[in-house]
C-alpha cells in the first residue's frame, strides 16, 4: 500500500469510492461520573449509510491543511483530510473514508499515523474527530487507535433524512 498527498487529479477516483456502511446497530452512549461509555444496541430496521464524497470534496482543499489517499493495486482505496487549529493545538480529522473492500486491513490506522506525522507533537496536542452513533464499526476502530468519546451533538444532523447523533472522539497525539 502507498500513501501520498491528495491531488485535484484524484477527485474523480475519491468521489466514486465505495464507502457505503451497512448500519445494523447503534452506540447507546451514556455519561457516568464524567466519562462516556457505550453499548451496542441492534436496530429494528437496518439501513445503509451513504456518503456523497463528490459533495464533501467541494469544501476542500481550501479547508484542509493536509489530505492523503491510500493506493492499493494501483487504485485509490481510501481518503483522509485534516486541519490544524493553533489556538487549541488540535488536529481535526475532517474526513476518513476507506472503501468497503479495503476495510479491516489497517489502512485507516496508516492514514491516521500519516496525518499525525504531518503535525509534530509540539504543534498538535490532541487529535479530534467526529463520527455518528450509528457507525459502530468506526467507533470500534477509533477506540482501537486510542480514541475515547468526549461528546455528543444531537443537532448536527437534525435536518438530514436519517437524523443521527454526532459522536466526538479525541486522543492525545503522543498516545
Explain what you see:
- GO terms for molecular function: acyltransferase activity, transferring groups other than amino-acyl groups.
- It holds the Pfam family Acetyltransf_1.
- The protein is an alpha+beta fold.
- It has a single domain (2-172), classed as Gcn5-related N-acetyltransferase (GNAT) (Aminopeptidase).
- Helix content is 17%, strand content 45%.
- The strands form two sheets. It has a seven-stranded mixed sheet with strand order 1-4-5-6-7-9-8, covered by helices on one side. A two-stranded antiparallel ribbon has the order 2-3.
- Strand 6 (90-98), helix 3 and strand 7 (126-132) form a beta-alpha-beta unit.
Task: Sum up the structure in keywords.
single chain; alpha+beta; 175 residues; two-stranded antiparallel ribbon; Aminopeptidase
CATH architecture label name: 3-Layer(aba) Sandwich
- The span between the termini is 24 Å
- Helix content class: 10-25%
Sequence of strands across the biggest β-sheet? 1-4-5-6-7-9-8
**How much strand content do the residues show?**
35-45%
CATH topology: Aminopeptidase
How many distinct beta strands? 9
Q: What is the radius of gyration computed over CA atoms, rounded to a whole number of angstroms?
A: 16 Å
Superfamily (CATH H level) name? Gcn5-related N-acetyltransferase (GNAT)
What's the order of the H and E elements?
A: EHEEHEEEHEHEE
Assign the structural class, choosing from mainly alpha, mainly beta, alpha/beta, alpha+beta, or little secondary structure.
Answer: alpha+beta
* Chain-averaged pLDDT: 90
In CATH's first tier, which class applies? Answer: Alpha Beta
Unreliable residue runs:
none
Counted by DSSP, the helix tally is 4
What summary fits the major beta sheet? 7 strands, mixed
Overall geometry: globular
Number of structural units classed as domains? 1
GO molecular function, one term: acyltransferase activity, transferring groups other than amino-acyl groups
Protein name: Acetyltransferase (GNAT) family protein
Keywords: Acyltransferase, Transferase
Domain N-acetyltransferase: 1-174
Amino acid at each position: 500500500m502507498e500513501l501520498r498527498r491528495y491531488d485535484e487529479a484524484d477527485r474523480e477516483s475519491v468521489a466514486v469510492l465505495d464507502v457505503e456502511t451497512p448500519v445494523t446497530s447503534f452506540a447507546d452512549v451514556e455519561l457516568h461520573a464524567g466519562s462516556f461509555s457505550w453499548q451496542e444496541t441492534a436496530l429494528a430496521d437496518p439501513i445503509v449509510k451513504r456518503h456523497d464524497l463528490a459533495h464533501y470534496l467541494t469544501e476542500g482543499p481550501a479547508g484542509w491543511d493536509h489530505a492523503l489517499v491510500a493506493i492499493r493495486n494501483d487504485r485509490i482505496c481510501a481518503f483522509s483530510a485534516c486541519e490544524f487549529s493553533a489556538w487549541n493545538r488540535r488536529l481535526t480529522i475532517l474526513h476518513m473514508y476507506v472503501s468497503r473492500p479495503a476495510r479491516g486491513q489497517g489502512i485507516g490506522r496508516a492514514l491516521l499515523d500519516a496525518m499525525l506525522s504531518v503535525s509534530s507533537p509540539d504543534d498538535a496536542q490532541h487529535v479530534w474527530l467526529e463520527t455518528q452513533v450509528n457507525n459502530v464499526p468506526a467507533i470500534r476502530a477509533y477506540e482501537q487507535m486510542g480514541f475515547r468519546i468526549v461528546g455528543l451533538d444531537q443537532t448536527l444532523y437534525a435536518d438530514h433524512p436519517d437524523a443521527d447523533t454526532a459522536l466526538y472522539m479525541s486522543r492525545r497525539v503522543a498516545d
